[in-house]
Amino acid sequence: MSWPSVACRELFRAHYGKALKVADRKQSGNVIVYGSSGAVGKHTDALIERPTIIIGRKGSVGDIVYVDHPSWTIDTAYYAEILDINRCDLRYLFYALGNANLSNLTITTSIPGLNRDDLYDTKIPLPPLDEQKRIAAILDKADGLRRKREKAIALTDNLLRSVFLDMFGDPVTNPKGWEVGKVGDCVNQVRGGWSAKGDARPARSDEMGVLKISAVTSGDFKPEKNKFVSSIPSNKNLIVPQKGDLLFSRANTRELVAATCIVLRSAENVFLPDKLWHLDLNSDVAEAAYLKFVFSHPEYRRVLCTRATGTSGSMLNISKGKLLAHLIPIPPIALQCEFSNIWGAVRSLSAKVKTDCDNVQQLFSSLTQRAFKGELTDKDKVAA
Fold it and tell me: Which residue segment(s) compose the domain that 150 sits in?
């Protein structure tokens, strides 16, 4: 079945979010504050009272978030307002934009961005309103299954954070009185990648790709987040992530800078960009799992990010010197190793759940592709 393709400018208005500094947010409020990558805090006042779609404008370009409650969108993202609710269903638009690969429209400047005109020029298939709602209902059911699996993975992450705090305490206040040193005591070497120009599409298994910053920002290593590089000079010493490596995002938007992840599987066909670092650890002093959880602690990360430089609206950057000079509690290496073993065991269980989640993701992707080709039937709703 073929439906007309309609430019987004005919369907919704993309409003710029409004800046709301962390210091100005009232975290006691119930209004969720959203940035380009999703929720970034809370506030007492809402910028948008109605359901909307949030579209990443800077940093996590093209990420799509559906919001069904009063919210505040900051200036790194757009929020959508349907022009005619009798022509376009908001929930259908959410799935259609997710299928449109908006990240391919990224403008690479000092900070990756999505131009509003490019967004408006993007075309999506537009079936009749009743069919839009039927498609959205089927995809909602499949998406619900996917979110249940993701919630199970999140529960294991929460468990690990609880174990970390029980064993080591808050890394900022250091209630257990561990010896305090510098990050440089834990790290032998910081290696930066190469600022390669890549294509919009990701590399195939037989090609080389440069990782995007988003390969790290979630806290899990995602090698599929890369850009194909067609030509690599012979004098370039590429840093290819290996299993067990600790990666650090030295540059990103304010809410995402200093993200850290551990490589759980080697990816031989991707290499680091200049905005991602490989931290070569001093194994006598620090374990990767311990450092990851310290860097991921919200307050420790906030303090670390005060060392970053950059103006409002630009990408923040942490220098090697400032990172290595930052203070950090250093518990006995034996205790860190004990935590690392616990982390490994829990991650193994989580990997099994993730396999199930990947299967559901494949189902969701298949249904999505069929939906926008007009191939979904009511049986698909039952299957989902």
Answer: 127-178+335-384
